[in-house]
Write a structure and sequence with these properties.
Blueprint: H1 5-12, H2 22-25, H3 27-47, H4 54-61, E1 80-81, E2 84-85, E3 89-92, H5 101-107, E4 126-133, E5 136-139, E6 151-157, E7 163-170, E8 175-179, E9 187-188, E10 196-197, E11 200-203, E12 210-218, H6 227-230, H7 237-242, E13 251-258
Antiparallel strand pairs: 1-2, 3-11, 4-5, 4-6, 6-10, 6-11, 7-8, 7-9, 7-12, 12-13
Helix pairs in contact: 1-3
C-alpha cells in the first residue's frame, strides 16, 4: 500500500509518530520513505548551495543594480542603497524541503496570531525567517541568535494587505532592501494559504549586535523612498522596532536576529 506523501512529510516534521502507522504501512516501508525524503532534501540543498549558484546570482543582479561591490569571500555582487552599504550578500534562494510546511505555521511566525474564526484575509501580514545550517533548514523565532555567514531565507504571508516592502537594518545602521528587488515603491503581494519565499536568500555579514528585518504593508500603494531620511537613529534597535518612522496607513512587523 502506497504511503501518502502528506503522512511521510508530517512524520518527518515530527508532527506525527511513525510507530502509529507501522500496523498500516509497515515499519520498513515507512523508514524507507523517510530515508528517501531526507536524501531528496540533501540533494536539493547541495544543488542550491551558495557556491553552486554564483552564476545565477550574477544573472539576477545584472542590469538591476546601479552600484555594486564584490565580496572577497564569494565574489558576489551586493546592493548599495543611498549612502548605506548593503549589509550582506544576496544568494540564491534556499530550496525549502518537503516537511517544512507544517513547521512554518507553528514555529516560525514572528508574532502569535489569534486562532479561531479569523480567516487568512483578515490577518495582518507576517514575516517568517529560515536558516540553512549544513543540510538542515531551521525555522527561526523572533529573537533567535545568528552569526556571520548564516544564510537566511525570508518568506511572508500577505494577510489582509495588498502591497508591501521588506527591508533590514543591521547593527552598523546599514539598510538593505529585500523586496521588491529594485524599487522602494511597494510591490503587489502574493496571496495564498502558503508562505511566499523571496527569490533570494541573504548571507549575514559581520555587522554587530543584531539584524532587524521589517515588513511594511498596506491595502493601498505606498513608497519608502525617503526611508534613509526618516530613519534617523539607524543603530538604535529600540527606535527601529518602534516603527514610528514609517508612513501612515501602513502596517509593519519586525523580526530581530541577535548577533
Amino acid at each position: 500500500m502506497a504511503i501518502p506523501s502528506r503522512i511521510i512529510e508530517e512524520i518527518y516534521a515530527k508532527e506525527l509518530k511513525a510507530e502509529d502507522y507501522y500496523s498500516v504501512y509497515g515499519k520498513e516501508s515507512i523508514e524507507l520513505a523517510l530515508d528517501e525524503l531526507k536524501n531528496s532534501n540533501i540533494q536539493i540543498l547541495n544543488k542550491y548551495s551558495v557556491e553552486n549558484m554564483h552564476e545565477a546570482v550574477q544573472a539576477k543582479l545584472s542590469g538591476t543594480v546601479s552600484e555594486v561591490k564584490s565580496s572577497k569571500k564569494n565574489n558576489f555582487k551586493m546592493f548599495k542603497i543611498a549612502s548605506y552599504a548593503a549589509a550582506a550578500v544576496f544568494v540564491a534562494a534556499i530550496a525549502l524541503p518537503a516537511g517544512l510546511t507544517s513547521i512554518k505555521s507553528k514555529t516560525a511566525h514572528s508574532t502569535e496570531r489569534t486562532k479561531g474564526s479569523i480567516s487568512v484575509s483578515d490577518e495582518a501580514s507576517n514575516l517568517i525567517l529560515y536558516r540553512q545550517k549544513g543540510n538542515e533548514i531551521q525555522a527561526l523565532l523572533n529573537g533567535s541568535t545568528a552569526a556571520q555567514g548564516d544564510v537566511i531565507q525570508i518568506t511572508y504571508t500577505a494577510g489582509r494587505n495588498n502591497y508591501g516592502v521588506i527591508f533590514s537594518v543591521d547593527g552598523n545602521g546599514s539598510i538593505t532592501r529585500h523586496f521588491p528587488a529594485n524599487s522602494w515603491n511597494a510591490e503587489v503581494l502574493k496571496h495564498g494559504t502558503d508562505e511566499i519565499p523571496l527569490d533570494f536568500s541573504y548571507e549575514l555579514d559581520d555587522a554587530p549586535d543584531y539584524e532587524c528585518f521589517i515588513m511594511v504593508s498596506s491595502k493601498q500603494e505606498f513608497s519608502l523612498e525617503d526611508i534613509t531620511k526618516k530613519l534617523k537613529e539607524p543603530t538604535n534597535i529600540e527606535y527601529i522596532q518602534a516603527l514610528k518612522y514609517l508612513p501612515k496607513k501602513t502596517e509593519a512587523i519586525s523580526f530581530v536576529l541577535e548577533k
